[in-house]
Design brief:
4 copies of one chain form a homotetramer.
Chain A (H helix, E strand, L loop, with lengths): L1 E4 L5 H13 L3 E6 L4 E6 L7 H4 L5 E5 L19 E3 L2 E3 L4 E5 L6 H13 L4 E3 L16 H15 L3 E4 L14 E4 L7 H10 L3 E4 L6 H13 L5 E5 L17 H8 L4 E3 L1 H5 L2 H13 L4 E5 L17 H18 L1
Parallel strand pairs in A: 7-8, 7-14, 8-9, 9-10, 10-11, 11-12, 12-13, 13-14
Antiparallel strand pairs in A: 1-3, 1-4, 2-3, 5-6
Helix pairs in contact in A: 3-4, 5-6, 9-10
Chain lengths: 332, 332, 332, 332
């Protein structure tokens, strides 16, 4: 970490700062240059709150040279992490995660599960606890929804992933194969700690207003609290460009693949907001190097109780899955 | 609500849609125009998931004409809501909420509390459960921090506000006068429901990537679940303009004052990120019509365990409070 | 166009508005509903300044139902426009446009031109008039730069494209095959009118802070002033996500392909800002349905006088071109 | 400038880089630290294209320590620049610039000019060349519009400011007191050079997608090409927060006042987009420390040919001007 100190700072201030940093266990090297004085800090700098150092009136800037997420950083594990969910190996094989926005009924779940399984999906998704922006819209079927999801997955031979929104509901997720932390909860640190302790693989979605660095720091929470089975998911960010529900930040894929050893998938559905935009976004994500896709699929989108506009129907998903396979072959 | 249907839609599809909407309790008026067919819906349209209607291939667009947050909307209570926190009346009197980012020790809290009280603060803030982006930085003193805060408030004669980050910690907030839901938890709906039921006044911060509408819908959750004592807080949003920690959306103040009867305050500290930017942002917020300010204040910012860079020291806050009073006089 | 009028508007105001709209040649249909009065306008509504109508205190909202860019809209030409640049047919064949950020010398241009031609590029790019953000950095070789570019193109058998930044320089572009309007000049309407009149094919880059609609309206300027040979180019937008030089809005590709008949290409170089990010972004753009790519290529990036960080070297471009071909085969 | 070099870089590469930097006239100090090698560069570093240095594979990062806009930087002129426009002294006295979006007729201009003069405006604005996003809307009256503006200003005793959009129109601005470069032309460097040479005071508007740094670099163009009479203007930026036409970045005011000696004003009208939002934004700007405001005013907004929705009527502007005076008194 580099601390850039203003040019005419009194020696006493410099000494006091240096001593306090050394007291925190860092090794400090001082370099006097023309326009500034530089303090080069070595040691466990990720513990240091860089913003706090800037409180000092004579500190011009603070630059990190090592990672603030040492466990998640690529350098911690050059090989790359593989997260096993049932038989799926995310990070080793390209994986399709598919299913409806919400589990609505046994018939709906059965129809969708068998179809997406035939189309090559590796994991079945389905929401039981929906984080709905408005308190007046369908909130999901709760525990019953989880049962519907798990039953459908069992019959179709697919592991399941579902979103947990409340730490107190975690006990209901015992038989769920992968737990999802939604975009709106990416920095719900209380939830992250519990989900880490719960021990199951985690699908961590990037917040709509979150930077890549914040996503990685939330992943760092999970790793630090003992759970290394984390899959990151880009799903579109908030920008001024409003032609779709969110702006898919496809550049996040190569940026993340460089920064971390954790697998990175993309949810093109929440970015697209409309079913006819899902496929181009999905293919773009695959071409950019994503380890997988999570796609919303419904057997009857027009009747969906939530987010029907962006769901692919069964034939649409089958077609997408086929195109994805061709693309993967061409990319090797 | 207005549903705009594509020009050559088969009559059968139109009939089916109309019937399903009427079955949901809405009154449907059909208007055939040159370029489109318009369905005008009256009734409890806030229950309708507009995005879901767009799933239909022949729906061109959906326009809301009435509010999706009927309880929070200004029309629900033209007079304006006053939220009482101790002796403070937010929404009636301009209120200053002040205190450190985190409660660190009894001496620190006592020094800050007595000083800000003398400077005219109406509420004392202090964090005990800090939502830190990195798992390696100071997380707050937890229950002990709350005790320090409440003791300091008691001695200085000020009510206190503190952030809750985990639903299971709410029981510790029995003697806290106002509960804060942080920006990162603005859409933690599980937390919102619990905080509403808890019954204390709520300070709801706008998420960094949240629209005004989403903020109001989160407020709607609180009102709908029985708690109408909600104060909204703008604290800066995520944009490409990175010269400060966040971009203060001062326009949110007049926009919110028009849209809702709930009081609106501003936190200039988290937008500024640096103490020398706090005052101009604070004064701008007051001039824009805010009902109050929440400012981070520390007796020794350079030693602060978190966010020291943006804290005003005691003299700085006293000066700001004086300038705010002068401004308020000029604005009447 | 739909004008939504507030519920209790005096009849006299409504009559006055209706008459003034009819005087502008529009046909007005009035619909009285429960919560509002709707004025449905038919005719040449693209002439109407919707924002101006909102000036009226009783106008709640204005919704366009037909296109504000009638010449550029897909409906004007379902077949899709093909823009011929030399032998390249953009919009019919997938086209690679490649070359250095700036033409620096005859040797540099010759080396790059022959190499990219062998790699399958259809058009050679090279800047002579660089819009440099800082007045202190390399501004391009001007007229000499154009000569170097055209000579290199001639020898390699490739048509050339170069950016014009000043209307008074257009006369120098007589022998340039395609004229580029840069992102910073997307709304330089004086330049657009001249470039349209100049008659050559135009490469119109999307501004970093421009919406899709604004890009299409700038294209509309060109079409309206007589030049229909326009290729649109997405090159990354300004967002809070700063991990790359700009955020590539890959969703703009399918959105534009739906909205307009004009071809759409992508410049992954300016979004990437770093050479190792160019390929994933390029492949993502191809997968999303782009009609072409414009890539910065340099024979010796470390010595480039501008934007060297994002340039691919000759081998890198050859590799990319090959991967693009494979991808295109897989996508058919 | 600090160049951070990766840890195990071969000595030969380091030597080659150091020599080439010294050949560019810089003084290089090398510091070997644990995690990196640092090259500290002193001299005319603003000439260096930092992005270009990052092309080198072993360069981890480049940090500027001195200003890339040495002429505009506050350090160049601690006192602060005063720009004289007629009798107005922007940067010394708080100035109101007011007038219609476009000059439409002699009667309109006369009514507005005399009224705003009485209300205390120091400069009359009025557009003759409108940069309209759509080619179908009112483009301004051109040379005739300028005449109307100048005549009205003369009669009311006010200097005038108007926007130039085309370098070839500059000759028409001989008797205009101040030339405006619009937001969309902030990086039209050809126009900036001509406007600088033209010699009149310049009002430079920040682009909707431009950073503060880019605004200052465009100002640097003007200063470098000989024109130091530059006033900067914040007018709202592009963000995801769409409740107003643009998001007023009020934080830009204190940030700019720190960074540069040039005066900084705010245009609340283009951010507000609606007349009832103009006043709160205007007052916020004043409280944040702006040196002036530019406000759109029309005698009959409902009939305005452009941007009527955001114009204040004559009484509205008089009221605003009075409130501004009170605010300024309170702020001293």
């Amino acid at each position: 970490m580099l601390v850039i100190i203003a040019k005419d700072t009194p020696a006493a201030d410099l000494v006091r700062l240096t001593v306090s940093l050394e007291n925190r266990g860092l090794r400090v090297t001082t370099v006097t240059a023309e326009d500034a004085t530089l303090l080069y800090l070595a040691g466990e700098t990720w513990r240091i709150d860089g913003e706090g150092l800037k409180a000092l009136p004579y500190v011009v800037d603070v630059q990190r040279l090592t990672s603030p997420y040492p466990l998640a950083a690529r350098s911690a594990k050059e090989a790359g992490t593989v997260v096993h969910v049932g038989k799926a190996a995310i990070g080793r094989d390209f994986c399709l995660l598919a299913g409806p926005c919400a589990a609505e009924s046994a018939e709906q779940m059965a129809a969708i599960a068998s179809s997406v399984a035939r189309s090559g999906a590796a994991v079945l998704r389905g929401g039981a606890f929906k984080p709905r922006t408005s308190p007046y819209t369908f909130q999901g079927l709760g525990a019953e929804g989880l049962s519907l999801l798990m039953e459908a997955g069992r019959k179709a031979g697919l592991p399941v992933v579902s979103e947990v929104t409340d730490v107190r509901d975690l006990s209901l997720f015992e038989d769920v194969d992968m737990v999802q932390v939604g975009a709106r909860n990416m920095q719900n640190f209380a939830l992250l700690r519990e989900v880490a302790a719960f021990g199951k693989p985690v699908l961590l979605k990037r917040g709509m207003g979150a930077t890549i660095e914040e996503l990685l720091q939330s992943a760092e929470y999970l790793l630090r609290y003992g759970n290394g089975n984390v899959v990151l998911c880009e799903r579109g960010i908030r920008t001024f460009a409003g032609q779709m529900r969110a702006t898919l930040d496809v550049g996040a894929v190569p940026a993340l693949k460089q920064a971390t050893h954790l697998p990175v998938i993309v949810d093109p559905s929440h970015a697209a907001g409309r079913s006819d935009y899902v496929t181009p976004l999905a293919l773009a994500a695959v071409a950019a190097g994503a380890d997988g896709l999570m796609v919303e699929v419904h057997n009857d989108p027009a009747s969906a109780l939530s987010d029907g506009a962006q769901a692919l129907d069964l034939a649409g998903f089958a077609a997408l899955a086929e195109r994805v396979q061709k693309l993967l072959s061409a990319l090797r």
